[in-house]
């Protein structure tokens, strides 16, 4: 029987993916489906740390934030990710997955603060750790938080679970002629300004030799296939 190729992963979950077919917010059925896929992987013994996005609730650079002070809008965006983290934790609890939420912004009544050794201890105990509030700093994104936490957790890989099934020559949602890469180097992705992930996150992963796999969270079973090292999504590497 095949074995997972990764012992510990950092899963970046798209905030926008949590909307399902809704126009904003958290779609319960979608969260439950995503959690069932996470559980399958956790049941294989893979240690899972998650960074959750917030685009389904608030995006600091979106029209909703127009006219606002950028840093204020970004803090609102980070708080949105904490709400997503709580929704995810609740859905995991309902299927028997033990998890802990750690927030990069102190908000002690609802989540533990981010403490690196404690997070690592939880992972070793088989608990899923969900990191909320991104990096805790404005002007960053949860992609960069995923790169950062992936390294801090000594994860084997960063998995970006998003709305498209890999990195394309152009945004596939806007350009139907865009072609998917099976693999691409960090340097090429940065040089070509391929916007599937921000350049800060790509540069951080490149400098620390941390591979990224970009795949679709909407494709059933894709997460498990990535975990088994099967041909799924796009591998971004040095
Ligand atoms: N070259 C490209 N290849 C693939 N996707 C691209 C590319 N350029 C732009 N995109 C867009 O990038 C999006 C994924 O990145 P984005 O940061 O918007 O979402 P996310 O990180 O998954 O969600 P959230 O920010 O809500 O957590 C895709 O949905 C796709 O439309
Ligand atoms: O480290 C961070 C992470 C996020 N933000 C703000 O939150 C929103 C939502 O995050 P996404 O990565 O877009 O899902 C983002 O647009 C920023 O406004 C942040 O400031 N710092």
Automatic annotation (TrEMBL):
SUPFAM superfamilies: Carbamate kinase-like (SSF53633)
Record's keyword annotation contains Cell cycle: no
Keywords: ATP-binding, Cytoplasm, Kinase, Nucleotide-binding, Pyrimidine biosynthesis, Transferase
EC number, as in UniProt: 2.7.4.22
Catalysis: reaction(s): UMP + ATP = UDP + ADP
Pathway: Pyrimidine metabolism; CTP biosynthesis via de novo pathway; UDP from UMP (UMPK route): step 1/1
A GO MF label: UMP kinase activity
Aspartate/glutamate/uridylate kinase domain location: 7-216
Residues annotated as binding ATP: 12-15, 55, 59, 162, 168, 171
Domain of life: Bacteria
Annotated positions binding UMP: 54, 74, 135-142
Biological function: Catalyzes the reversible phosphorylation of UMP to UDP.
PANTHER family: URIDYLATE KINASE, URIDYLATE KINASE PUMPKIN, CHLOROPLASTIC
HAMAP family: PyrH_B (MF_01220_B)
Recorded family membership: Belongs to the UMP kinase family.
Record's subunit section: Homohexamer.
Protein name in the entry: Uridylate kinase
Species this protein is from: Parachitinimonas caeni
Gene behind this protein: pyrH
């Amino acid at each position: 029987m095949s074995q997972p190729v990764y012992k510990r992963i950092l899963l970046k979950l798209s905030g926008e993916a949590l909307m399902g077919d809704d126009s904003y917010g958290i779609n319960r059925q979608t969260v439950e489906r995503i959690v069932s896929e996470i559980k399958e992987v956790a049941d294989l013994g893979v240690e899972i740390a998650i960074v959750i996005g917030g685009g389904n609730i608030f995006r600091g650079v979106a029209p909703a934030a127009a006219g606002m002070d950028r840093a204020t809008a970004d803090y609102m965006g980070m708080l949105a990710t904490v709400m997503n983290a709580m929704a995810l934790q609740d859905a995991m609890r309902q299927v028997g997955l033990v998890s802990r939420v750690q927030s990069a912004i102190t908000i002690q009544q609802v989540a533990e603060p981010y403490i690196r050794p404690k997070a690592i201890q939880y992972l070793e105990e088989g608990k899923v750790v969900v990191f909320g509030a991104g990096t805790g700093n404005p002007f960053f994104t949860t992609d960069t938080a995923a790169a950062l936490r992936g390294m801090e957790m000594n994860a084997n890989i960063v998995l970006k679970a998003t709305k498209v099934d890999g990195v394309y020559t152009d945004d596939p949602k806007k350009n139907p002629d865009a072609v998917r890469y099976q693999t691409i180097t960090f340097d090429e992705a940065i040089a070509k300004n391929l916007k599937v992930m921000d350049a800060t996150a790509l540069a951080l992963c490149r400098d620390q030799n941390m591979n990224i796999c970009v795949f679709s969270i909407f494709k059933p079973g894709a997460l498990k296939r990535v975990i088994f090292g099967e041909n799924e999504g796009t591998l971004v590497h040095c």
